[in-house]
Specification:
Rossmann fold, seven-stranded mixed sheet, 20 helices, about 15% strand
Amino acid sequence: MKILALNPPFLPKYSRESRSPAVTKSGTLYYPMWLCYAVGYLEKAGHEIQLIDAPASGMSTDDVIRAVREFEPDMAVLDTSTPSIYGDVAVGEELRRVFPDIYIVLVGVHVSALPAETLALSPRIDAVAFGEYDETLVELAAALTAVNAGPPAVGAPADGERLDPKGEALSAVRGLAYRDGSGQVRRNEARQHIENLDDIPFVSEVYHRFLDITPYFYGHSRHPLVVIVTGRGCPFHCTYCVLPQVMQGHRYRKRSTESIVQEFLYIRDNFPGVKEIMIEDDTLTADRKRCRELSEALIATGGHRIPWSANSRADVDYETMCLMRKAGCRLFCVGFESGDQTVLDNIKKSITLERITAFTRDARRAGILVHGCFMVGNRGETAETLEATLRFAKELNPDTAQFYPIMVYPGTSDYGYFSEKGWIVSKDFRQWLTEDGLHSSVVSNPDLRYEELVAFCDRARRGFYLRPTYMFAKLKQMVTNPGEAKRIIKAALTFFRYLLQPSIKRKDIQ
């Protein structure tokens, strides 16, 4: 089967697969990583794929249509996100207009949380693959191929209802919500998560075949970079985090150390210009024993010669950090979230301010940089806790920091909590970004309106980055470590365009 895998057009440099999809002030652009993993799985099953990342390549819907006319896909898999969902559906509708027989299936966290609601947006969207969708797409493609290859149906069933061979075939595909022959939406049982992650081809091989990697950029990472995962799922239960709650579960399923090392070596040999590998597991350091084993294996095989970074919790011991640093670990990306202990407890962060402070100190001693993420507007947030968070960020003084207002995505505990309180001010998902596509918020509580949260993040960024001591430290870092200079300058050129202007320009959300 010919399958189009599409990260649809929306906004330039829109990171649909970010945990909080938006256009970022640092110029960060995520790979369509989960879509690429599915592409590898579909190729392994024998399907012919055309992969297009429209936001990275600057393609419009018309550009996409022109690019796929010769390919003539039988099925299109469209990645989605909450803020872009209406646009994503519109792209699917246009594909159906041009290719009347194409089968349109949507994937991603938003449609996984709201499959029926998504299918109700347009009769031209055929299905949603909800949850972890690699195997679902393979089974769906096989079912459609079998139906299309079979003999035409003859006669009618005894009860007089119209024959629906496609609907019958799709009813066995777990993890699928679809429109049957009568137009009714059916939701099949959920799919179990993939256990043998080594069975999925390297995502870096998919990048190598289909993508120009130069547009992809993380503000905290050296450029160019390659992004992979070594495991899926997260054992922690933070109330806001969408991927474990909607897609991949709370059990950390891990690739073998051998598989990870082999992919590091593949990247080393096939991407000669790459300056960094980013490990995008929700929390690589959730298994510190495995981190040590992986570090030792990278050192033994030479895989450590490319610097790498990872998402981490603020609870890694100093000895493990030192071994990871020796193995090439350059930076931890850490969700600190708040400088108030009550707020951390409210969001089930399961960490203390004292442990965060010790972790940051130990990372500095070990020679590992830290990118700190701070999120405001959480349960129990007040004007006082906002100021405590900014003070805490300055005290920790990570290498880089981001401040963003809470976004409560469908399917998360926070979405249910804030919906029940009546504090989500708009469920028109178009309003979940600013006019420029930047992070906004649609959550107001009795003490803080969403505009105040966004304005605080603007002020916090200025307060953190415009400190003379911080700016001097960055200049010193570029001089003493030229490898960091390109990353710092590239992020700063984009970031400082936004630094002195407010994020929200519109008057209000309707």
